[in-house]
Amino acid sequence: MTSIDVKELEQWQAEGRTFFLIDVRETFEHEVFNIGGINIPLGELSSRLHQIPVNTDIVVYCAKGIRSVIAIQKLEAKGFIQLYNVSRGIQSLY
After folding, report:
1. In whole angstroms, what is the distance from residue 93 CA to residue 11 CA?
2. Total structural domains in the chain?
3. Mean pLDDT across the stretch 8-33?
4. Which of these, 90, 7, 20, 32, lies nearest to 58 by C-alpha position?
5. Quick check: 46 pLDDT over 80?
């Protein structure tokens, strides 16, 4: 697992880098504030793996960076390899 911070993620977006962004917070959290991407709450991750592409960089975020680490561990166990965690989450943005 590789970690990036919010500033690096913003730079990736500005550069037009291709990646799949996943918010693993609960739906109500995503609705209040998000930085884009698909919302797949951590508890639903295993049942929604079919929505995640395998041949691209996958960036996972949450509020503090804890749930995203757990999500990445689950994804690694399922064979996903190009995984990036947004360290410390997005709490610094709100």
Report:
1. 15
2. 1
3. 96
4. 20
5. yes
